[in-house]
Amino acid sequence: FGENIVTEGIELKYLPIGTVLKIGDGITIRVTQIGKLCHDRCAIYYTAGDCIMPREGIFGEILTGGTIKAGDEIAILEKDAEIEAKT
After folding, report:
1. CA separation, residue 83 to residues 25, 26, 54, 57 (Å)
2. Burial status of residue 29 (CB atoms within 10 A of its CB: 0-12, 13-18, 19 or more)
3. pTM of the model
4. What is the pLDDT of residue 81?
5. What is the largest CA-CA distance in the chain?
């Protein structure tokens, strides 16, 4: 459950579900979930004394793929924005 993309300057936990992010040259991701709740107290919880699931950050659905490079700009598009598919 480590980070796949690390950001700065965006308050991810305040983005509404459905918000579309554009990264770099056309990669788009739709926010599907903010953080993750621990549903059950699993063996890891009892061993570690706490849940290891991330409580911050976001989960997203890739709408338009591509390659992300360090330093790529991230733009917040309108919630549930229509995205043109790359051909």
Report:
1. 13, 10, 28, 23
2. buried
3. 0.71
4. 60
5. 49
